[in-house]
């Protein structure tokens, strides 16, 4: 078994100064984010942390993702069903093959920049396309997103004003603080805080949720997985917009830029503690306290009253 850890983990003073850990440090292989491609070297992922750790692990694999076993060491733990206190027995059970998996769909996001550059510059986790006109380039960067794509107004005091296209047809203009395009996994994250419904990760769908829309009738909608969504600044927009992917890679979107979103063909195979249904409802109850209320007492019979 070959174990890969991030280079910054072994450089951490707490670990480097641990007498018990120092003798085995030389046995680890290391990698650095955005510098090393480990997609062809990893067969199994163990996440130690919170939900953000799983999102980060997903971002390291821009194509096929190995099975992920996520231990709960964070503050929420909606996506991390395993308890670290019993890691040895749980890990042995997984390695023996007694496991069920939920395929968490991701979004394939392509950001097309319409600006001109004097010199081509390689973007992280993306590609650059040249337009063949002088030294200018038309940049296209691609991301794999597990939770959501968020387009918002950023530091501007104006409402964001973006056009939303579905399979090439303009379906609406979003005026408000922004819009969230999420996977079923992301429906229980930022989207649910913005008023969206919660969708089980086995449901093939994409959710579109406005953020504080300036319209009483603009409700979140669910569209089929596989459709192509495109978001662009409206021609009437007074300012630019900003976009982020699972809370990372935040960047400005200007007039002429576009964000194209569809369902990725590379989901995240997440290992279940029990099964996909039990784990999901357990997370709803434990993390979000879904439908928790004080129980109503049974009415007393006439005999008990007297």
UniProtKB/TrEMBL annotation:
Q: Record's Pfam families?
A: NAD_kinase (PF01513), NAD_kinase_C (PF20143)
Give the UniProt family note.
Belongs to the NAD kinase family.
Q: Is this entry keyworded Transmembrane helix?
A: no
Which N-terminal stretch is annotated as signal sequence?
Answer: none
GO biological process annotation, one example: NAD+ metabolic process
Top-level class of the enzyme under EC nomenclature: transferase
A GO term for molecular function: NAD+ kinase activity
E.C. number: 2.7.1.23
Name it.
NAD(+) kinase
Q: Which domain of life is it from?
A: Eukaryota
Key words, A-Z:
Kinase, NAD, NADP, Transferase
Q: What organism does this protein naturally occur in? A: Merluccius polli
């Amino acid at each position: 078994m070959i174990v890969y850890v991030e280079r910054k983990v072994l450089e951490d003073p707490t670990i480097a100064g641990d007498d018990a850990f120092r003798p085995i440090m030389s046995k680890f292989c290391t990698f650095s984010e955005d510098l090393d491609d480990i997609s062809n070297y990893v067969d199994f992922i163990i996440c130690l942390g919170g939900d953000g750790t799983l999102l980060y692990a997903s971002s390291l694999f821009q194509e096929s993702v190995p099975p992920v076993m996520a231990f709960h060491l964070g503050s929420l733990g909606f996506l991390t069903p395993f308890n670290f206190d019993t890691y040895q027995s749980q890990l042995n059970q997984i390695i023996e093959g007694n496991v069920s998996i939920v395929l968490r769909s991701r979004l394939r996001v392509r950001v097309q920049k319409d600006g001109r550059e004097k010199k081509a510059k390689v973007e992280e986790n993306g590609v650059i396309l040249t337009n063949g006109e002088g030294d200018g380039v038309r940049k296209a960067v691609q991301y794999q997103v597990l939770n959501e794509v968020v387009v918002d107004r950023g530091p501007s005091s104006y409402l964001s004003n973006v056009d939303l296209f579905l399979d090439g047809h303009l379906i609406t203009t979003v005026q408000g603080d922004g819009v969230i395009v999420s996977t079923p996994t992301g429906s229980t994250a930022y989207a649910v805080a913005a008023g969206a419904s919660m969708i089980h990760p086995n449901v093939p769908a994409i959710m579109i949720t406005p953020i504080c829309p300036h319209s009483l009738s603009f409700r979140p909608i669910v569209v089929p997985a596989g459709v192509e969504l495109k978001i662009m600044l409206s021609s009437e927009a007074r300012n630019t917009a900003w976009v982020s992917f699972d809370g990372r890679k935040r960047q400005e979107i200007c007039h002429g830029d576009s964000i194209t979103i569809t369902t990725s063909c590379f989901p995240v195979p997440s290992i279940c503690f029990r099964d996909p249904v039990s784990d999901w409802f357990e997370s709803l109850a434990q993390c979000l306290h879904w439908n928790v209320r004080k129980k109503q007492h049974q009415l007393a019979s006439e005999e008990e009253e007297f």
